[in-house]
Design goal:
The complex is a heterotrimer of chains A (289), B (308) and C (270). Chain A is mainly α and 289 residues long. Chain A is built from 14 helices and no strands. Chain A is globular. Chain B has a six-stranded mixed sheet with strand order 6-7-8-3-9-10, sandwiched between helices. Chain B has a four-stranded antiparallel sheet with strand order 2-1-4-5, covered by helices on one side. In chain B, strands 12-13-11-14 form a four-stranded antiparallel sheet, with helices on one face. The chains are: A mainly alpha (289), B alpha/beta (308), C mainly alpha (270).
Chain lengths: 289, 308, 270
């Protein structure tokens, strides 16, 4: 029997270039989220505001039929960009998004860290970029269902209920605003969630941080504002920053009398910082000292 | 000898999945191996014995006392769980000290016992490293250390050799064997026959939640030795090798696998077969790439025994 | 009390002490506790910024104790203690099951009730210490000009006591939630920031179904002003009744947690 000398040999083959290597990660993440107890119930519940706003659009076109219900004018049934902005960026919707993020995002990276499965991912023809894309796609999927899709559906239904293109001709940029805002809020929350999820192996801890940082940013804003009476402290609040940028996107007056640019810069800085740390934290091999 | 562990009609099911069915047995001091393929019910059996699970039917007693919620009994029991789980932020030393505290020893005694246990498992030099940085083998030995540190009479080890390299296995087997001489009762579960064989002659075979056999390992060994084995050989000249094998009376049949260069040989005498194999390779200058035994696992043995 | 019962009680207390020591020393060294400590002292930074601004601005400063009182409610009572109690309360059982370390505890000569109560006591003590450090430092910073006014220390003591009672009660409740539910965090968040807030807006006795009602009842109701919304629609119960209820809720939920933990089977997930 010949015993051949064994040495390290480079593999000269080529990886099969799959078009969307991140897709299995995304699909699995979405599937897992739906398997969670109470998620379906909560997710269905989180679509209720969309149904109410849609009903509002319908009623706005049939005000005559509903006259018996409204004694005076009903400004909240005036369908304009503010109506869309109210649905998309009011506190209640952002709160719903945070809870959805806890469901779908808290375990995205922390579970991989817990089960030491990062090395399994990177032992496959999968780049870090694909890993992040797959994880981000899970968040994008759920957040778009609550922002982009209802926003566009409202717009289309408004045109259908009105039976004319007048609304479109008045606000031709509105679909772009809806798309732009949805992308912005989803991108921010994706970075925010993935970053926090990469901080710990404990999903419960991650869930608390996702929620706690969002709420505490608002509390600190309130306390500072109350003492300093400076609107610049709104830059401390995640909610306020999103609403500032959202107001600009929908051509509305910003809720705080400071430039939306600052808020945009704050949100962008958080994303950049989160991206930088994520890149450092997510590694195939963990070295424990 | 008086039995230490006694079970009567012990049964456990998870929903409609059967975990253990009607197990009545008595275990005496010494090492007893619990052998069975994955999912056979070994862990369920051990958890029932330890009172971690409630039986649906039947009873389990340790030294004549019911175990569930009988905490005092645990002064005399050491358990090494199957799962590779620890308080990861602790060092090996802190882990040992913390768990020994729960046995209500004095501080000085805790330190002596922790040191002794860590010395036994050869972890004393690494005691101040955090557990997260331990290798699999070290973690396995640490689990063993916490099970023996309070000097229990009964030691229950659930798959203690899982994931260990051959050297690690030898170390742990030696440790386990070193404990049998002191009148202790040791229960070790495994799905690998040679591992159990290296520790004890007394085994309990569990299969599909039932006790399949109990007694001396030699009886099982004899059955296994006559169990026809299939050996797969991937080599440079399978046809020449086949022509030599068909002349041997311990070879029952020879097949060529669909995988290129692979020969499947069925034999009823493994020892003779493996005795002759190297000489054939050398004599006919055959390059060997791989030798495997597709049915050399406990499940195959059980299937054979059940069939018999 | 017979000798056997006395022996059992002393065995239980011994076990309690041992479990407490184990988890207290492990908890104080954990990374998570360090992060929560940093979060806990953030209000001190806020207080420092407010105080520095008062020094350098020309406006008439608001009294430090007024800001302190409201910070206690807004940051600590309505946010931080809920977050801490939720995480550490649910951790008592969940972290053992999730980390598969439960068997190390349940195969020791300690009763399951001692495991629950000992671990609960260790975590509650740690988060009370953590919160108190933040509260005391905030108080000192905000009242740096009035440190000789001893009447203010009564307010500090009262606030620390209320927060400690809150931590004790909420942690007991979440310990129970952690023993009964696998995914307890979402329920906890909904309870803490949904139920506990919303129920305050209901009239009559409805608000007595919230723990926060009894805690707020121990604090003075602010006159109409900027922070009056924090006590919105509070129809306070008497102090004595509130303290009784807080202890009762703590006892009941801890008792239920012990019962459940002793009775339930925990099967680890792969």
């Amino acid at each position: 029997m010949t015993i051949k000398e064994k040495g390290y040999a480079h593999w000269d083959g080529e990886f099969l270039d799959k078009k969307f290597p991140w897709w299995p990660i995304a699909r699995y993440g979405i599937k897992l989220t739906f398997r969670k107890k109470f998620f379906k119930l909560f997710f269905a519940g989180s679509l209720v505001p969309a149904v109410i706003f849609l009903a509002g659009i319908y009623v706005s076109e049939r005000l005559e039929d509903f006259k018996f219900m409204f004694q005076e004018s009903v400004p909240f049934l005036q369908i304009n960009p503010a109506y869309f902005e109210t649905y998309l960026s009011e506190g209640f919707m952002l709160f719903i998004l945070i809870v959805i993020l806890i469901f779908c995002g808290s375990g995205l990276i922390s579970d991989d860290l817990k089960h030491n499965s990062l090395q399994l991912y990177f032992a496959r023809p999968l780049k870090k970029k694909d890993y992040f894309l797959g994880k981000t796609a899970v968040i994008v999927f759920f957040l778009f269902i609550l922002t982009l899709i209802p926003g566009l559906v409202f717009f289309i239904m408004k045109l259908i209920f009105a039976g004319s293109f007048k609304f479109f001709l008045t606000y031709p940029w509105l679909p772009l605003s809806i798309i732009g805002y949805s992308i912005l809020v989803t991108a921010f929350f994706s970075f925010y969630t993935l970053f926090i999820s990469s901080l710990s192996k404990n999903r419960r801890y991650v869930a608390i941080l996702i929620f706690g940082i969002y709420i505490s940013s608002d509390i600190f804003h309130a306390i500072f504002y109350d003492n300093f009476h400076s609107h610049y402290f709104s830059l401390l609040s995640i909610r306020a920053n999103i609403q500032q940028v959202s107001a600009f996107i929908f051509s509305e007056k910003t809720p705080y009398p400071i430039s939306w640019i600052y808020s945009f810069l704050v949100l962008t800085s958080i994303c950049v910082l989160a991206g930088f740390i994520l890149k450092k934290k997510v590694k195939g091999v963990e070295i424990v000292k | 000898m008086k039995p230490v562990v006694e079970t009567e009609h012990l049964s456990k099911w998870y929903g409609n999945v059967l975990g253990l069915s009607d197990v009545s047995l008595q275990i005496e001091p010494g090492i007893t191996g619990i052998l069975g393929p994955n999912g056979a019910g070994k862990s369920t059996f051990l958890k029932l014995i330890l009172g971690q699970l409630k039986p649906n039917i039947g009873t389990c007693a340790i030294k004549g006392e019911m175990i569930r919620n009988n905490y005092a009994l645990f002064s005399n029991i050491g358990f090494c769980p199957e799962q590779d789980a620890f308080y990861d932020e602790l060092t090996g030393w802190q882990f040992m000290i913390g768990l020994l505290k729960l046995h209500h020893f004095s501080s000085s005694e805790i330190e002596i016992r922790a040191r002794k246990a860590l010395e036994i498992v050869e972890l004393i030099e690494d005691k101040d490293r955090i557990i997260k940085s331990y290798s699999r083998g070290m973690r396995q030995r640490l689990k063993f250390a916490q099970a023996i540190a309070h000097d229990p009479e009964i030691i229950i080890l659930d798959e203690p050799l899982n994931g260990l390299d051959p050297l690690g296995r030898r170390k742990v087997i030696r440790l386990i064997k070193s404990y049998k001489g002191e009148g202790r009762t040791i229960l070790v579960s495994s799905h690998v026959l040679p591992e159990i064989e290296a520790m004890t002659k007394r085994i309990i075979l569990i299969h599909q939640g039932k006790i399949f056999a109990q007694g001396d390992i030699h009886y099982i060994r004899d059955l296994i030795d006559t169990h026809p084995h299939i050996v797969s050989i991937k080599c440079s000249d399978p046809r020449q090798l086949a022509s030599k094998f068909i002349q041997e009376d311990f070879v029952l049949n020879v097949n060529f696998s669909s995988t290129e260069g692979t020969l499947l040989v069925k034999t009823n005498n493994r020892d003779k077969f493996f005795g002759i194999l190297p000489s054939l390779f050398v004599k006919y200058d055959i390059d060997v790439e791989e030798i495997t035994s597709p049915d050399d696992n406990l499940q195959a043995v059980f299937d054979y025994l059940v069939g018999k | 009390m017979g000798q056997e019962s006395r022996g059992r009680v002393s065995f239980f207390l011994n076990s309690l002490k041992d479990v407490f020591t184990f988890f207290f020393s492990m908890g104080k060294k954990s990374k998570k506790m360090k992060v929560f400590f940093l979060i806990g002292v953030l209000p001190v930074v806020v207080a420092l910024i407010i105080k520095l601004n008062q020094f350098f601005s020309n406006r008439t400063p608001i009294r430090g104790i007024y800001i302190f009182d409201n910070m206690t409610i807004a940051i600590y009572l309505q946010f931080l203690i809920l977050i801490l109690a939720l995480f550490y309360g649910t951790s008592v059982c969940s972290e053992e099951v999730e980390g598969k370390t439960l068997t190390y505890l349940t195969t020791r000569p300690v009763s399951k009730s001692a495991v629950i109560i000992g671990k609960y006591a260790a975590y509650t003590s740690l988060i009370i210490i953590l919160t108190s450090i933040g509260v005391i430092l905030s108080f000192l910073v905000l009242n740096v000009n009035d440190l000789l006014d001893f009447s203010l220390y009564k307010i500090l003591l009262r606030d620390v006591a209320v927060l400690s009672l809150g931590l004790m009660c909420y942690t007991a409740f979440f310990t129970f939630v952690g023993t009964i539910m696998k995914k307890s965090i979402l329920f906890g968040l909904v309870f803490s920031f949904g139920w506990e807030n919303v129920i305050q807006y209901f009239p009559g006795s409805t608000q007595r179904f919230a723990i926060i009602h009894y805690l707020k009842s121990l604090l003075p109701v602010p006159q109409t002003g900027r922070f009056s919304f924090l006590m919105f629609r509070l129809e306070p119960s008497s102090a004595l009744f509130s303290i009784f209820m807080i202890f009762l809720i703590t006892g009941v939920f801890l008792g239920l947690a012990c019962l459940l933990f002793s009775w339930k089977e925990y099967i680890f997930e792969d």
